[in-house]
Amino acid sequence: MTLVNQVALVTGAAQGIGQACAQALAEAGAHVVIADIAGDKAEATAEAIQAGQRRALGIQADVGDVQDIDRMVRLALDAFGQIDILVNNAGVTRRADIMDVTEADWDRIHRVNAKGVFFCLQRVAREMIPRRRGRIINIASIAGKGYVGASNVAYAASKGAVIGMTKLAALQLGKHNINVNSVCPGVTRTALSDANLAVRARQDGVSLEEMERRRADAIPLKRANDPEDIAAMVVFLASAGARNITGQSFNVDGGLIPD
């Protein structure tokens, strides 16, 4: 699954799943652009990848801003001249009951998780079309497929949107030899999910350790994902082995959602 001399742009790549994806793509041979709202952390991740002898660039970018998306892509092109792989990973959420989701929650979540994913996809596709090649990998979630443990309904709706746009984008970009797929993580150990777990523990009046045990027990394989589990699927979808796979949404969830 070598990606030597390919260039990958990963959003939300300063930590968690995005960071693991950036590191795994670099290990497979790709040069990597790390984009994140936290520019200093993006640069730190880039420096870590460069220490492993791969070229990398850290960029501060807000994917909820279309002009900032354009700036991000132009900086990536200025540095590397091409983008072969896009990993649309940036996302936000918070733990909330359906009756507690506010308009501000809805707007914030969809601004990044749905709008950001689409306009990153569209902008990068403009660069891929003339070259007649590209891999676009959207990080969705099993929340978008009805997972009962979703952090909130707005988040579930935003990830359902990602799954839907993945299918349509694959159909419309296939004629340009661009593959579009999504990965749907289940429970994954990240700072974001740990914060949500802490909220649930407080709500249920139990210790964090007990909540972690309950979380694992609910998974058929009895373990939550590490970010590297998602990264492994991303590297496969970016590789030549996935050349005839497009329009699909793959669960990486230990069996939580039979799909």
H/E element sequence: EHEHEHEHEHEHHHE
**Helical/strand content category:** alpha/beta
- Overall geometry comes to globular
Major beta-sheet overview: 7 strands, parallel
What this model shows, in words?
The chain is built from eight helices and seven strands, in the order E-H-E-H-E-H-E-H-E-H-E-H-H-H-E. The protein is an alpha/beta fold and 259 residues long. The chain has a seven-stranded parallel beta sheet, sandwiched between helices. Helix 1 links the parallel strand 1 and strand 2. Helix 3 packs parallel to helix 4, helix 4 runs parallel beside helix 5 and helix 6 packs across helix 7. The longest helix is centred in the middle third of the chain and has 29 residues. The two termini are 26 Å apart. The mean pLDDT is 95.
List the SSEs and their pairings:
Elements: E1 7-11, H1 16-27, E2 31-36, H2 39-50, E3 56-60, H3 66-80, E4 85-88, H4 103-131, E5 134-139, H5 153-173, E6 178-185, H6 191-204, H7 208-217, H8 227-238, E7 249-252
Parallel strand pairs: 1-2, 1-4, 2-3, 4-5, 5-6, 6-7
Keywords:
single chain, 259 residues, alpha/beta, seven-stranded parallel β-sheet, 8 helices, 7 strands, 15% strand
Write a compact overview of the structure shown.
The chain has 259 residues and is an alpha/beta fold. Helices cover 48% and strands 15% of the residues.
